[in-house]
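Support request from a user on the community tier.

User writes: "When I paste my structure tokens into the form, the page sometimes reloads and wipes my input. The last time it worked, I copied everything first. Here is what I submitted, just in case something in the input itself triggers the reload:"
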């Protein structure tokens, strides 16, 4: 059991003050005990506390609630629509990002081993979704026999100290409202897969995140919006430049990484690749998510 951490609670947010010594008290377990100290002005009543503290034990006398919250060990996850092209051109810049898990969209079926683990899916051998693992992480494709929306790749990830599910996406148009319907169908289809273990859903959704309302249903949160405290539709970073043009009317935020809400405290950093560095390689910029 890891050493306790102290959290100061206020409505709709937690501020964590880590009281453990990372050098002498490593977090060996995937769950940690958190204590949330409440002050009278922070919540009007117990129901207010329950609204923001899920699965907690609340003491109205000490105004203390505690909960087991899942932890994830350090991992870097990257998603990038590389806009076709051979792996000899696209892999070197990807590897410079030093990912533990990488998802590539619009990439050909590999003809050789590119990572510690890999799986590819697509309807065209020249363009599909490739999931790669590195640095001791392995992946196992999940088998689902029903007809699947295009293109989603469910895998189970196992690493040196972390295990989780991952649903990689490159969304193609379905019935109206086209791309949104494809995502909705996939979330319904993979509902049990998402719920069986902590799950990351990431990739090129080809539309705006603000249209989706399934994050509450699945317990997932957008790593980008959580990290930057950004409202939906107000993203400061574009992930897609139509026709590779830099003007504002050609900029969109289409690429996402959704993580379990229980990993919120483990979100260390989120980055979006710069136009200057990546536009010569693709019309999409990579999204890099670091979890501590």
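"...and here is what came back when it finally went through:"
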């Amino acid at each position: 059991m890891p050493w306790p951490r102290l959290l100061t609670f206020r409505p709709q947010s937690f501020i964590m003050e880590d009281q453990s010594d990372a050098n002498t008290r490593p977090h060996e377990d995937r769950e940690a005990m958190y204590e949330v100290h409440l002050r009278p002005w922070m919540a009007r009543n117990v129901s207010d506390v329950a609204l923001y503290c899920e699965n907690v034990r609340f003491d109205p006398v000490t105004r203390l609630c505690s909960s087991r919250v899942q932890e994830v060990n350090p991992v870097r996850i990257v998603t990038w629509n590389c806009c076709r092209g051979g792996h000899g051109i696209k892999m070197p810049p990807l590897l410079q990002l030093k990912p533990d898990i990488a998802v590539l969209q619009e990439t050909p079926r590999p003809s050789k081993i590119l990572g510690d683990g890999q799986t590819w899916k697509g309807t065209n051998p020249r363009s599909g979704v490739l999931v790669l693992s590195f640095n001791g992480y392995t992946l196992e494709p999940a088998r689902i026999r029903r007809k699947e929306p295009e293109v989603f790749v469910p895998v189970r990830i196992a690493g040196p100290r972390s295990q989780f599910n991952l649903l990689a996406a490159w969304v193609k148009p379905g019935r109206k409202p086209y791309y949104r319907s494809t995502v909705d169908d996939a979330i319904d289809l993979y509902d049990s897969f998402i719920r069986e273990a902590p799950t990351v859903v990431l990739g090129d959704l080809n539309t705006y995140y603000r249209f989706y309302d399934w994050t509450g249903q699945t317990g997932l949160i957008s790593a980008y919006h959580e990290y930057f405290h950004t409202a939906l539709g107000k993203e400061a970073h574009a992930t897609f430049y139509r026709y590779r043009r830099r003007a504002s009317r050609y900029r969109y935020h289409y690429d996402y990484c959704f993580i379990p809400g229980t990993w919120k405290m483990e979100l260390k950093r989120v980055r979006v690749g710069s136009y200057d560095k990546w536009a010569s390689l693709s019309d999409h910029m990579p999204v890099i998510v670091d979890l501590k």
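Agent notes: The reload is a front-end session timeout and is unrelated to the input. DSSP finds seven helices and 19 strands in the chain. The first strand starts at residue 5 and ends at 10. Escalated to web team.
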